[in-house]
Specification:
The protein is of the alpha+beta class and 380 residues long. 60% of the residues lie in helices and 11% in strands. It is elongated and about 130 Å long.
Length: 380
């Protein structure tokens, strides 16, 4: 048994038009047949025509015939008008819908650069075209990011895997002995691979909102001091000065101490990578109004040009002065940091006057409720 063929837009329009026309004609026939003759008869009698006269019957028959002819002509005219209106409306709508259908098919084949112009078929169709173009643009960005991410992942994994392969082949061939150096190299490369896997898992969980935060009231000063203590050895080894500036009015925040420590560690590591020996990185905190606390990581390093600033939090983004894999790191530390700060109902932003003038990252977090109340009392 063949499948039932779906009716097209034109046939649906024509059916709707015919339904309206048919209903109107039936209503007109009912009114003309039941109400019209009686009224016409009463008016003829009132005009002086005698009841049941031949003249009265002739006039009433002429009235009925005229009504039937008029209704027949009206029906034919209405059907022709309905057909013309159906053709016009269906073409006006089918043409842009056909273009949208073809564009959707091209996108289904992977042509994410497909766009449809505004077709002037009404506000609704134009809104649909705009939404389609927005979807296509986002899909194209997603696909570009996916391809770049796969390329970067392949690059990131190639080096440690190559090193591990060389050492394993050397051990099998007896060219390399298992000693402290071999153990350290292999452990370092395994740690690099593990860190990459953990970073990818973290950023996926963060962007999907799957982080479970163990929040508690923490002193901002203590958080900054702990982050500085954890990073001071790396800073000393490179010859970069790390300064910690925190005052007690910075107050407390309700955060997951481990996760916020991860954010501050990422920001300090990022600043260290892009600050040359002899430079300075400052981590500071202060009030950002009665509601928020701002934690700033400021460096005197390479800086970021204006065109790259909007992209520094994207996965695996690389730029001349922004994050890049040649400086080390997986390239998604800032992406994870931004997602974690937003999970704390905060915001993470980057600012830079330009290349050679350093960069400042600002993490804004809501104050603890007790501190907000005290700050409001001081302000008033």
């Amino acid at each position: 048994m063949s499948p039932r063929r779906e009716r097209g837009l034109a046939s649906r329009f024509l059916g709707a038009q015919l339904l309206v026309v048919g209903t109107s004609i039936v209503a007109a026939i009912v009114v003309a047949s039941l109400v019209g003759p009686a009224l016409f008869h009463d008016h003829l009698v009132m005009a002086g025509h005698p009841e049941s006269s031949a003249e009265l019957l002739h006039v009433e028959r002429a009235y009925r015939d005229t009504n039937l002819i008029t209704l027949a002509v009206a029906l034919a005219t209405a059907l022709i008008c309905a057909l013309l209106a159906t053709v016009w409306l269906s073409r006006r709508i089918q043409t842009p819908l056909g273009k949208l259908t073809e564009a959707a098919k091209r996108m289904a084949r992977g042509r994410y650069d497909t766009r449809v112009p505004a077709m002037g078929a009404g506000a609704e169709v134009d809104a649909l075209a705009t939404s389609f173009n927005t979807m296509a643009e986002r899909l194209q960005r997603t696909e570009d990011t996916r391809r770049q991410m796969l390329s970067d992942l392949a690059h990131e994994m190639r080096t440690p895997i190559s090193v591990l392969t060389v050492y394993l082949e050397g051990l099998q061939d007896g060219v390399i002995d298992w000693d402290t150096t071999t153990s350290d190299v292999m452990a370092e490369q395994m740690a690099r691979l593990t860190r990459l896997v953990e970073d990818i898992n973290d950023v996926s969980r963060a962007e999907e909102g799957r982080f479970v935060l163990d929040r508690a009231e923490e002193s901002v000063t203590d958080l900054l001091q702990a982050a500085g203590d954890a990073a001071k050895e790396a800073y000393a080894a490179k010859g970069v000065t790390l300064e910690i500036e925190a005052t007690e009015p910075a107050g407390t925040v309700a955060v997951d101490r481990q996760r916020l420590g991860q954010v501050l560690g990422n920001l300090l590591s990022n600043a260290l990578r892009h600050t040359p020996p002899g430079g300075t990185v400052t981590i500071s905190a202060g009030g950002q109004g009665p509601e928020d606390v701002a934690i700033r990581v400021t460096d005197t390093g390479e800086g970021i040009c204006r065109e790259q600033l909007p992209h520094v939090f994207e996965r695996f983004y690389r730029g001349d002065t922004a994050r890049d894999r040649d400086h080390g790191g997986s390239g998604i530390g800032l992406t994870i940091s931004k997602a974690l700060i937003e999970a704390h109902e905060g915001a993470l932003t980057a600012h830079s006057p330009g290349p050679g003038h350093g960069t400042v990252f600002i993490a804004t977090l809501p104050r603890h409720s007790h501190d907000r109340a005290e700050q409001a009392m001081v302000t008033t």
